[in-house]
Design a protein that fits this description.
The chain contains five helices and no strands. The chain is an all-alpha fold. The two termini are about 35 Å apart.
């Protein structure tokens, strides 16, 4: 590769150092974004558990709460997809769709999709542990 005319070696070196620094900063930001999104999965799982407990105790659906859970899980799915955590993102999207329309998926599909709250939380915890080790 031929040098860029009018560019000194020190300018190229400065550019390379800046590029590497930006790359490291982006990597650190991505890690923090991943940690934040995974923590939100755990929070969403627990918030959903509380609503399910209330639903079981009272037997009364609250559309406002279900709308909130729909948006919460859907937005988490988008955030995780952007971070490259595709499997967990898909599970969040399925959960979001399920809260929007509980009749959309069959019980068999939901069982096979591994979208139980316990499974979602364990997956998020496992990914958090892995991220914190690196």
């Amino acid at each position: 590769m031929a040098p860029i005319p009018g560019t000194s070696f020190s300018e190229l070196l400065t550019h390379a150092v800046r590029w590497l620094s930006n790359l490291q900063r982006a990597k650190a930001m991505r890690k923090q974004d991943s940690i934040s999104a995974l923590r939100k999965v755990i929070s969403a799982s627990r918030e959903t558990s509380v609503y399910i407990r209330q639903l079981n105790d009272e037997g009364k659906r609250e559309h406002k709460t279900e709308r909130h859970l729909t948006l919460l899980w859907t937005e988490l799915g988008f955030a995780l997809e952007d971070l490259g955590l595709h499997k967990l993102a898909k599970r969040c999207q399925i959960s979001g769709k399920h809260w929007a329309d509980p009749e959309h998926y069959s019980k068999d599909f939901l069982s096979k999709a591994n979208v139980s709250l316990d499974k979602m939380e364990r997956t998020a915890r496992s990914l958090l542990t892995e991220l914190n080790q690196h």
